[in-house]
Amino acid sequence: MLKRNSSDFFKKNGYSILKLLSSNNISCLKSDLLKKINYKSSNNAKLLNINNLQNFHRLNFTNKEFRNILDNSKRYINLNKDIIKKVNSKIIDNFLKDIWGHSDKKIVWVGNPKLNEIKFNCAGYRIFPPSNNKDKKSIFLDEYHIDSYNNDPKSFVTIWIPICGLSEKFTMDIIPKSHLIDHKSKNLFVKNRKYISRTIKNNFTTKLKSFRPRLKFGEVFIHNPFLFHRGGKNLGNFSRISLEIRIFNKEYFNIKKTFNKEFYY
Ligand SMILES: [Fe+2]
Known about the structure:
By secondary structure, this protein is an alpha+beta fold.
């Protein structure tokens, strides 16, 4: 049996779960996120601290503030040096060497590449209120999709970091092994592109078995850009908060070539 933290498991299933972060790392990420939320909203947000961030949905944000905090074009934080050190640690480097043959990387946050929303050493964040919350609904895409900007599976990997919500009630919904499906087949994708990501047709995914992983504190979920995944409903009773770090393969990284217009216009 392959261990779920191994690169062989990743090659076979399209994802892996690695123990990467310390409790101090997670506190720092929470505090960076809080600064961003405070900066983008009224005094109301000052009620939040690193110990109650999961109560985000209980605050009285106006719809405008709520959307502003989750605005796609600015939904990122700058990564502090300790987190960058972790991304450059042996755990990640050895993993990348196994899947890419080297570990030369660039950490890149990508909003809409068409609008040049590209930032280095930054991570995206997402906040999902509980699905049964009537006032604040999740504004994110909840259909299976892939994250690619080109046709190269070695172009990047995504590290998904749960900040609040580690169990199956909160985590991403994925289809193991779906990265092996021929993503070049045009039949696979929904034609009407409301989102940058390529959405998979429903009739295709209903036949496939999905899964929501359970993570331990400090663990992160790393996945292939072609793995079918979606946010999944927040079935818990607090806000689910996560970060995404994209590690691009430096060997091929080139703003014009990496972000192939054909895939997201
Ligand atoms: Fe995605």
